[in-house]
Amino acid sequence: MPAPRKYPDELRERAVREVREVRTTGRPIAHVAKDLGIHKEALRGWVRQAEVDHGERNDRLTTAEHDELKQLRKEVAELRRANEILKAASVFFAQEIDRPRTRPSR
After folding, report:
1. What pLDDT does 23 receive?
2. Quick one: three-class SS letters along 37-105?
3. Is residue 48 within 8 Å of residue 57, measured between CB atoms?
4. Per-residue pLDDT tens listing for the chain (106 residues)
5. Which residues fall within 8 angstroms of residue 43, CB to CB, at 6 or more apart?
6. CA spacing 20 to 30 A to 69: which of 15, 59, 62, 102?
7. All residues at 6 or more sequence positions from 104 whose CB lies less than 8 Å from its CB, including other chains
8. Residue 52 contacts residue 59 (beta carbons within 8 Å)
9. Among 3, 12, 17, 5, CA closest to 37
10. Alpha-carbon gap, residue 43 to 62, rounded angstroms
11. CA–CA separation, 60 vs 40, rounded Å?
12. Among candidates 72, 67, 85, 15, which has minimal Cα distance to 45?
């Protein structure tokens, strides 16, 4: 289960929108962050991610790509665990087949 987010999504969206709007006036991200009570580096990261998601940057994964990568890594880990279980089962059954059978005494 992922850790809870410190800032709600609505605040993130509003903060990013404000930064994108005030870029024309030249107001620094730090001032917007201070006004909203957000750490400036957190806001800077949100703005960068929004730029990637809008196709303005290509130096990071988009949110959709990041989510897909996370899901694929989870699936790979699950498949690896399943393979280990199957390998162990095949070894067990191979040993059972190779064992000489004895007749029960009457």
Report:
1. 74
2. CCCHHHHHHHHHHHHHHCCCCCCCCCHHHHHHHHHHHHHHHHHHHHHHHHHHHHHHHHHHHHCCCCCCC
3. yes
4. 666 678 898 999 999 999 988 776 677 899 999 999 999 999 999 999 999 999 998 899 999 999 999 999 999 999 999 999 999 999 998 888 877 777 766 6
5. 15, 16, 19, 29, 32, 33, 36
6. 15
7. none
8. yes
9. 12
10. 17
11. 20
12. 15
CB 56 within 8 A of CB 62: no
CA distance 48 to 63: 11
